[in-house]
Q: What sequence folds into this?
């Protein structure tokens, strides 16, 4: 959500910024802009639409200079047009501001500034920052930003430059930002991929950090000006891992990476005795008597699978909470509650605030997270990293897969520690878990079959997804994937719930994807499929290889290999991801950057 790149050094700033913004495209945006410190003024270009529109302008009028800022904007206040795009400049065109987040008190500030004679050009909340900093500027940019921030409330990753200074000032409150440390050059960005071609030495900024960046170094202080020493981390990802690697889309590449990345999640965590799991976390499993899982979107569906696993294996009551609701409803939490927050980015604001709410109640906290150094990892007691590597496609695939794997590990670990999971059951589950990469690979081979279904139903307006037990979340995830990237309306229901309402929707225009893999409830699922067929519904069953019975009931069958029921969501999600991908691709939609969506949602 909004991409930021700032550069000061010996290279042409335009090249570094445009390259960095391209690498941040996955975050989601609808306009883009760049400012470079020229001589004597700042040179700025801003355009609505994709980065290619901005690039075309820069091809004919390149901006020359070694210091600059770039921004991709995901509109919150004001339409995505040229004027509202960042950077915003002061009236004397000397001061430039880019910003990610929301300035909550922008209206009273704007009123005051307008009264003082400032003329606003855009409809954005960000523009108040330019006028405020301009008003406080007396020759020292750092001091002007510092003074201005004392008047601002809200969330921001803020980056400022001035035509008279070879430096950048940045500040963070809630919205993520990272510094890249180079040799005679330094960088600031909203996420690591923008920095990877230039440096792997990074500093993740914390809330309340104010930074002065020059080509020689970076100085971090708090908003009062007290210097802070922040750790420099070395990023393990390389730039290549964040590239498409020959695949048509990031999403496709990331789906095919799943057999490998799940090995990274499991690797080193399955004990040699074949029945235990080693997790490097400090939690005492007997110090809790209740679990709350808070997350958003796909991560919350991974949490629902986690609920099923933890209740079954560790006999602990679990509630899954939509993070954006949890924080506002005065939830009951105490020191015997474990709050698990699940997030690929580790920056989702709703999830972060749910975590903070749980901490206020005294809960112990655990993150299931992909991005190292992210804000959530810094605020939880412990983290289980999912090790999915960079996920660029807005539609989450491999992060979901590895979140599920992390919950499998956690469920077994808790079950063993609490004495609720017997040796034989643990052995069976772990043996099945070890087979999962191979089974996912098998499932991925059925792409052609899924593609035929996608072709046949790509112009239908609605889809229904059904699943039960531990595969009800799989149905929810299948529907979300299809909605996100193909814009086809899709709903998911627990299969047994269908007769309580959704069955009224069934007709020959509503394909129904029914998950019917091996489970004690298989027979009941088949009965529910018959109920759909009896009403002229079109049934696409997800069923195990070798299940011939299903062919008598379903119109189409998509095959997946059979596994332990508790592990089946990891395999069953493959045809669901693939169906969404193949449908969106056939509709010639932007698979990796679907409309209106952002990869990392850092505003409420
Ligand atoms: O970074 P997070 O895992 O916290 O993101 C949570 C959701 O925004 C995310 O899963 C979203 O639903 C995806 N676009 C799903 O594909």
A:
């Amino acid at each position: 959500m909004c991409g930021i790149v700032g550069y000061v050094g010996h290279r042409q700033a335009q090249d570094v910024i445009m390259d960095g913004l391209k690498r941040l495209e996955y975050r989601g945006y609808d306009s883009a802009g760049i400012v470079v410190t020229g001589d004597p003024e700042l040179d700025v270009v801003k355009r609505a639409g994709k980065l290619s529109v901005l690039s075309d302008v820069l091809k004919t009028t390149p901006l020359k200079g070694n210091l600059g800022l770039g921004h991709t904007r995901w509109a919150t206040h004001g339409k995505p047009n040229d004027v509202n795009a960042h950077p915003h400049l002061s009236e004397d065109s000397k001061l430039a501001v880019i910003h990610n987040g929301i300035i909550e008190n922008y209206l009273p500030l704007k009123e005051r500034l307008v009264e003082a004679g400032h003329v606003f050009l855009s409809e954005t909340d960000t523009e108040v920052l330019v006028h405020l900093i301009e008003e406080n500027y007396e020759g020292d940019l750092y001091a002007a930003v510092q003074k201005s921030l004392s008047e601002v409330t809200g969330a921001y990753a803020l980056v400022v430059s001035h035509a008279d200074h070879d430096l950048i000032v940045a500040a963070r409150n809630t919205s993520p930002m990272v510094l890249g440390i180079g040799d005679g050059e330094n960088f600031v960005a909203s996420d690591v991929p923008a920095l990877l071609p230039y440096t792997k030495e990074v500093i993740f900024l914390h809330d309340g950090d104010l930074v002065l960046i020059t080509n020689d170094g970076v100085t971090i202080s708090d908003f009062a000006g007290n210097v802070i020493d922040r750790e420099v981390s070395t990023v393990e990802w390389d730039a290549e891992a964040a590239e498409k690697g020959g695949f048509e889309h990031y999403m496709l590449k990331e789906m095919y990476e799943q057999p490998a990345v799940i090995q990274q999640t499991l690797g080193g965590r399955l004990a040699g005795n074949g029945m235990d799991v080693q997790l490097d976390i400090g939690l005492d499993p007997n110090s809790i008597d209740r679990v709350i899982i808070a997350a958003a979107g796909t991560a919350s569906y991974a949490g629902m699978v986690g609920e099923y696993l933890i209740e079954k294996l560790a006999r602990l009551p679990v509630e899954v909470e939509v993070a954006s609701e949890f924080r506002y409803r005065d939830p009951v939490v105490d020191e015997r509650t474990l709050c698990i927050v699940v997030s690929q980015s580790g920056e989702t604001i709703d999830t972060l605030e749910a975590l903070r709410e749980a901490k206020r109640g005294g809960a112990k906290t655990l993150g299931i997270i992909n991005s190292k150094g992210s804000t959530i990892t810094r605020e939880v007691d412990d983290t289980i990293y999912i090790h999915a590597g960079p996920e660029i496609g807005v539609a989450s695939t491999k992060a979901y897969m590895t979140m599920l794997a992390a919950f499998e590990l956690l469920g077994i670990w808790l079950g063993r520690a609490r004495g609720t999971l017997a040796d034989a059951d643990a052995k069976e589950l772990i043996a099945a878990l070890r087979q999962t990469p191979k089974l996912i690979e098998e499932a991925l081979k059925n792409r052609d079959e899924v593609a035929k279904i996608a072709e046949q139903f790509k112009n239908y307006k609605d889809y229904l997804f059904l699943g039960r037990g531990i595969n009800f979340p799989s149905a929810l995830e299948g529907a979300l994937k299809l909605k996100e990237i193909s814009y086809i309306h899709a709903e998911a229901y627990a299969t047994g719930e269908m007769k309580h309402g959704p069955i009224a929707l069934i007709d020959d225009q509503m394909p129904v994807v029914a998950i019917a893999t091996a489970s004690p409830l298989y027979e009941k699922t088949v009965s529910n499929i018959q109920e759909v067929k009896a009403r002229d519904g079109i049934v696409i069953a997800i069923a195990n290889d070798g299940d011939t019975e299903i062919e008598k009931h379903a119109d189409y069958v998509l095959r997946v290999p059979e596994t332990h029921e508790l592990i089946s969501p990891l395999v069953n999600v493959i045809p669901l991801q693939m169906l969404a991908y193949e449908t969106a691709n056939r509709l010639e939609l932007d698979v990796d950057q679907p409309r209106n969506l952002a990869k990392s949602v850092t505003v409420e």
Notes: The mean pLDDT is 94. The chain has three domains: 3-241, 244-442, 445-592.
